[in-house]
Design brief:
Layout (H helix, E strand, L loop, with lengths): L1 E7 L20 H16 L4 E8 L3 E3 L5 E2 L8 E2 L8 H17 L7 E8 L4 H12 L5 E6 L16 H16 L2 H5 L3 H6 L5 H11 L6 E8 L6 E7 L2 H7 L1
Parallel strand pairs: 1-7, 2-6, 2-7
Antiparallel strand pairs: 1-9, 3-6, 4-5, 8-9
Helix pairs in contact: 1-2, 3-7
Length: 247
Amino acid sequence: MLIAAAVCPHPPVLIPAAMGEAGAGPELAGLRAACAAAVLGLVRSQPDLIAVAGSAPSSQTYPWPSTGSLHRYGIPWSTGPGNPVLPLSLTVGTWLLIKALADGAGGAGGPAVTLTAVADGAGPAECRRLGESLAGASARVGLLVMGDGSAKKAIGVPGAPDAEAEAYDDGIAAALAAGDAGALGRLDPGRAAELRVNGRAPWQVLAGAAEGTAGMRGVLHHRSAPYDVSYHVASWAAGPGAAALAG
């Protein structure tokens, strides 16, 4: 059963080494802090399984740990043995989760972890079934959802607002803040593709996972578009964790 979720974007610039020795980018400070807090909160909800789901060109499952690398982005960080196999979303998700586990797991052992890439073109029904399957994989499931909002602004005039993209992102922000699985489940894949939204499929996995969970609540920690790509950070929780979100 799903007890908690964290929603994060996956730009490589989340990793401080992406900005050189100084870890620069003051415009990224709020985004980085929100992602770290959301994933740490997920770990502290004490799931026995954390399922990481992220957007990718094709759907695939990977064992934990699997190899991910950010070297092609000029970032000297990798994890796991052998050649890199993880897509960007799961690589950044792995980085966030490793850091959160080190910062706040406490005790011995820790949760099991699974890694699932979700095809950008996966339909809503497929995403819902995957979410239901992940939520049913253990008694206490935490879901780390990795996906970006609209990048349509980035292909227009740099820094210029895009009314369509802004309206879409407004809807995503409202759904995440309200813990509204229904709204996420109704997202149209075609519209998401037009607006260059690669988070649509993993968000619909979250919707499927949360569908049978009573009392789910959400909080939106952060929303920004520092490089004309929209990023949302949120937490969802049910049961005692929902009360903590409300506080």
